Amino acid sequence: MPRTALSVLLCLAFAATLQAEGTQRTLFDGKTLQGWEGKAGMFRVEDGAIVAGTLKARIPNNEFLCTKQQFENFELRLKAKLIGQGNNAGIQFRSQRIPNHHEVKGYQCDMGAAGKLNNIWGSLYDESRRGKFLATGDTDKVNSVFRKDDWNEFRIRCQGPRIQIWLNGLKTVDYVEADDDVTRTGIIGLQIHGGAPAEAWYKDIVIEELKGQ
């Protein structure tokens, strides 16, 4: 095959792959909250990051900064850290706002500590729906990669019924949803949990939409 024809075929194949899998794009420009919605005063931009919550007072209840756009099959990458007395936050996905309420319902990639689980970073929780952990990582392995009071890297992949989560390169969750009635489409949300003063910081938020299964 002539080199020119081969080059054309390779370019077409590459273009088809991009069309099938989508291309990465940022969900946060590092300067504004354009494309997001949430309670005024609870979220701000500082040093190129979204900051949720406050270190100056108790947080009355859970609050979420949510994308205006909904997503179904995707790979989401971002960095997050949690500081302060409060020890709980998380990243919602395939979720929905509860009408006339501060809560959302749906899957959450958890951050913090809870009950007997002394480190729930990278665990999969079902927020305001089934109200339980659907999958958790190995505590010893999570502790070995977790960076306290520092940036931690998340990778969240949703494709069809399968949900996978990585924390700093460690796979913490590989879950397949068995309930076909659970929606696979929804917003992405950044949480600060109600309670003691705390700040959850999020940055470098990039998404790649994927072909469904």
Question: What would you say this structure looks like, in words?
Answer:
This protein is mostly beta strands and 213 residues long. It has a single domain (24-209), classed as Jelly Rolls. It is 12% helix and 45% strand. It contains 2 helices and 15 strands. The strands form 2 sheets. Strands 1, 3, 4, 6, 11, 12, 13 and 15 form an 8-stranded antiparallel β-sheet that branches. Strand 7 and strand 8 (104-112) form a beta hairpin. The radius of gyration is 18 Å and the shape is globular. The two termini are 34 Å apart. Mean pLDDT is 91; it is low at 6-20.
CATH-level-2 architecture: Sandwich
CATH fold label? Jelly Rolls
> What structural class do helix, strand and pairing data support?
mainly beta
Provide the residue-averaged pLDDT: 91
Helical stretch tally? 2
Q: Output the CATH homologous superfamily.
A: Exo-inulinase, domain 1
Uncertain runs are 6-20
Largest sheet: 8 strands, antiparallel
Backbone CA Rg: 18 Å
Q: What is the H/E string?
A: HEEEEEEEEEEHEEEEE
Tally of structural domains? 1
Report the span from N to C terminus.
34 Å
Share of residues in strands: over 45%
Shape: globular
Feature tags:
213 residues, mainly beta, Jelly Rolls, eight-stranded antiparallel sheet, seven-stranded antiparallel sheet, 15 strands, 12% helix
Gist of the model:
With 213 residues, this protein is mainly β.
Write the layout of secondary structure elements.
Blueprint: H1 3-21, E1 24-26, E2 36-37, E3 43-46, E4 49-54, E5 63-67, E6 74-84, E7 88-97, E8 104-112, E9 124-127, E10 133-135, H2 139-145, E11 152-159, E12 162-167, E13 170-176, E14 187-192, E15 198-209
